[in-house]
Amino acid sequence: MDKSEAFKRNGFSHLRASFTYSMSGARYLLREQAARHEIWMVITASISFGVVRASFAEHLTLIALFILVVCVEAINTAGEAIVDHVSPEISEFAKRVKDLLSFAVFCTLLLFGGFTLSVLFSAQDLQLGMDMSRVLPVETPPSPNNLGHSDNRLA
């Protein structure tokens, strides 16, 4: 099949071809060790979320952030392949591009990790029954039964 035939596809055959190309990309990405580490990362986080009984919305957010990490990892992998093809020798240009791609992955991993830790720590605070008012003092208004009287017989 030549290129012109591929572009003429429409309807269901176009969707099927797009899906096939996407799965090919996913298989390629899974050859990358970083992508496999990210899969273990989301499995571990999901199990932890189950243990602390995270909300449905928190689970959905975790999945959305994982998809974001995978997307940026795919862009990173594609970018590195292009740089390696265009500039096979070691160059400042290649280093700069790869560093920026790596930084993009790092930022998404920070988002994922920060969200995961915030859910786990907030769930731990609730489970331990921590009184956060001791950490952040909150003034409580006087109760109607005790308006500053030291004599409790009036209440």
Automatic annotation (TrEMBL):
So where does ATP get bound? Answer: Y21, E32, E80, K98, D99
Report a single Gene Ontology molecular function.
metal ion binding
Residues bound to a divalent metal cation = E32, E80
Which InterPro entries does the UniProt entry name for this protein?
DAGK, DAGK_prok, DAGK_sf
Regarding the membrane, this protein is recorded as:
Multi-pass membrane protein
> Reaction(s) catalyzed by this protein?
a 1,2-diacyl-sn-glycerol + ATP = a 1,2-diacyl-sn-glycero-3-phosphate + ADP + H(+)
Q: Which residues form the active site?
A: E73
Q: Which enzyme class, named as a word?
A: transferase
- Cellular compartment(s): Cell inner membrane
Q: What GO terms fall under cellular component here?
A: plasma membrane
- Family designation: Belongs to the bacterial diacylglycerol kinase family.
Q: What is its main location?
A: membrane
Task: Please name the Pfam families in this protein's record.
Answer: DAGK_prokar
Task: Keyword check for Nucleus, yes or no.
Answer: no
What is its biological role? Catalyzes the ATP-dependent phosphorylation of sn-l,2-diacylglycerol (DAG) to phosphatidic acid. Involved in the recycling of diacylglycerol produced as a by-product during membrane-derived oligosaccharide (MDO) biosynthesis.
Which EC numbers does the record give? 2.7.1.107
Q: Which cofactor does it need?
A: Mg(2+)
Q: Which GO terms describe its biological process?
A: phosphatidic acid biosynthetic process
Q: Where does substrate bind?
A: A34, A35, R36, H37, E38, E73, S102
Name under which the protein is recorded? Diacylglycerol kinase
Assigned keywords, A-Z: ATP-binding, Cell inner membrane, Cell membrane, Kinase, Lipid biosynthesis, Lipid metabolism, Magnesium, Membrane, Metal-binding, Nucleotide-binding, Phospholipid biosynthesis, Phospholipid metabolism, Transferase, Transmembrane, Transmembrane helix
